[in-house]
From TrEMBL:
Pfam families: AP_endonuc_2. It comes from Paenibacillus vulneris. PANTHER family: APURINIC-APYRIMIDINIC ENDONUCLEASE, ENDONUCLEASE IV ENDODEOXYRIBONUCLEASE IV. Its EC number is 3.1.21.2. InterPro entries: AP_endonuc_2, AP_endonuc_F2_Zn_BS, Xyl_isomerase-like_sf, Xyl_isomerase-like_TIM-brl. This is Deoxyribonuclease IV. The keyword Metal-binding applies. Its cofactor is Zn(2+). Belongs to the AP endonuclease 2 family. It is an enzyme of class 3 (hydrolase). Gene3D superfamilies: Divalent-metal-dependent TIM barrel enzymes. NCBIfam families: nfo. PROSITE patterns: AP_NUCLEASE_F2_2, AP_NUCLEASE_F2_3, AP_NUCLEASE_F2_4. Keywords: DNA damage, DNA repair, Hydrolase, Metal-binding, Nuclease, Zinc.
Amino acid sequence: MNIGCHISIRHGFLEAAKTALKLEATAYQYFPKNPRSLTVKQWNAKDAEACARFCRENGIYSIAHSPYPTNLAVDDPGLHTATVQSLRNDLQIAEACGSVGVVVHFGKYKGTDPLQGYKNIIQCLHDVLFDWEGRAKLLIENQAGDGSLMGTTLEELVQIRTLSAFKEHIGFCFDTCHAFASGLWPIGHEGWSQLKDQAVRLGYFDHLLAVHLNDSVYEGGQFRDRHAMIGKGYIGEQRFREFLQTIDGFDLPAILETPVLRGHTHAGEIRLVRQLASN
């Protein structure tokens, strides 16, 4: 497990990787472009290549995160096209930077037929991946259930990947706060043990390629997605210790998306996560 945090690319891809190293992180996440737009970005290929080389030399993992408007379940033809083009752009940037892949939320459907929403997701994945030959993958993230219950179960995530004609280009990103908020991670004493057994049974761990480490401001099962610092929310240090010790042997990036106090960095929280994972 490689621990890090979200880092801005305001000063370029290479500088983001260097910032991760300064924080003693072995992983980081970044938005490959404006996080509030599906606009296709022209990027600096030399900067991306330098970033990939720096990460290889220093043993740093990275993942990109698709912009907020990205919705795999979108119904509107124009938005579908824009979403496909944007995700292709994200994958190309992630590939150039040597990243594991691009995190994308499962998708939300506003129509009356949930089955159509799932069909839209499968079609969108097909249109993004049908001729993709890169190593970077789409990493589907479980959702918190705010606004829609789609994407809140492991069965849904595994089944969507299984039904894709291009499943070899699809992996998963597990978000701890989302899992807790949606009730996927049960509140009780044996909560993580139950979820772990389910993940093993479904083969979910076989395709888990990234993790978002976030505590929760709210109690579990309320479908409210608000992140807290590790150990400062309702998930708590003990639950995180159990979770981290399960995935500690997994060769993947584990990324903090937690708030940072003004004038501080994630360095201390990265050290805390390492401590919880080790004892």
